[in-house]
C-alpha cells in the first residue's frame, strides 16, 4: 500500500487554500498545513517536514519567488510545485531556472495531483 503524501498548501487567499485542501484530500492526499505567505510556509515546512508544498507565487509579504529557494534549502527532499494564476515570460523563466514545475490555477485538480504524485514518488 502506498503511503499518503503529506502536503502544505501556501496561498494568500483563504478560499483558494480551502479549495485546494478539499481537492487534495478527496484525491487521497493529507494536507498537513496551510500557510498564508512564504514566511509562514518556511516555518511550517521546517516543523512539519511535508512530502510536498503547493506554493502560490504572488502573495503579500514573502512571495513564493522568495520562499521557494529557502524551502528548497531547508527541506531539500520536499517536492515543490508553483501554483499560480499568472504565468508570463518572467514567471516561466524563473521557475525553469529554479527547476520548479509551474501549474496554472484551475478548477480541475487533476494536473496538480498527477504532478505531486510524480514528484514525490520519483
Quick structural gist:
The chain is α/β, with parallel strands linked by helices and 122 residues long. The protein contains 5 helices and 5 strands; from the N terminus they run E-H-E-H-E-H-E-H-E-H. Helix 2 runs parallel beside helix 3.
Task: Note the main attributes of this structure.
122 residues; alpha/beta; five-stranded parallel beta sheet; 5 helices; 47% helix
Radius of gyration: 13 Å
Helix content: 40-55%
* Number of strand elements: 5
Number of helices: 5
For the report, how would you describe the main beta sheet? 5 strands, parallel
Mean pLDDT: 94
The fraction of residues in strands falls at: 15-25%
**Low-confidence runs of at least 5 consecutive residues:** none
State the order of secondary-structure elements, H for helix, E for strand.
EHEHEHEHEH
By helix and strand content, what is the structural category?
alpha/beta
Strand order of the largest sheet: 2-1-3-4-5
Shape: globular
The CA-CA distance between the termini, in Å, is: 16 Å
Secondary-structure map with pairings?
Layout: E1 6-10, H1 14-26, E2 30-35, H2 38-48, E3 52-55, H3 64-74, E4 79-84, H4 89-98, E5 102-104, H5 110-121
Parallel strand pairs: 1-2, 1-3, 3-4, 4-5
Outline the structure in words.
- With 122 residues, the protein is of the alpha/beta class.
- The protein contains five helices and five strands; from the N terminus they run βαβαβαβαβα.
- The protein has helices at 14-26, 38-48, 64-74, 89-98, 110-121; strands at 6-10, 30-35, 52-55, 79-84, 102-104.
- The protein has a five-stranded parallel sheet with strand order 2-1-3-4-5, sandwiched between helices.
- α2 (38-48) runs parallel beside α3 (64-74).
- The longest helix is centred in the first third of the chain and has 13 residues, at 14-26.
- The protein is globular and about 35 Å long.
Amino acid at each position: 500500500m502506498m503511503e499518503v503524501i503529506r502536503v502544505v498548501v501556501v496561498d494568500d487567499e483563504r478560499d483558494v487554500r480551502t479549495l485546494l485542501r478539499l481537492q487534495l484530500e478527496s484525491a487521497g492526499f493529507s494536507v498537513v498545513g496551510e500557510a498564508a505567505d512564504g514566511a509562514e510556509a518556511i516555518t511550517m515546512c521546517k516543523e512539519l517536514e511535508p512530502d510536498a508544498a503547493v506554493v502560490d507565487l504572488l502573495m503579500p509579504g514573502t512571495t513564493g519567488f522568495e520562499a521557494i529557494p529557502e524551502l528548497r534549502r531547508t527541506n531539500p527532499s520536499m517536492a515543490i510545485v508553483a501554483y499560480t494564476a499568472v504565468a508570463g515570460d518572467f514567471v516561466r523563466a524563473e521557475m525553469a531556472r529554479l527547476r520548479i514545475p509551474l501549474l496554472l490555477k484551475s478548477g480541475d485538480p487533476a494536473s496538480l495531483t498527477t504532478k505531486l504524485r510524480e514528484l514525490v514518488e520519483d
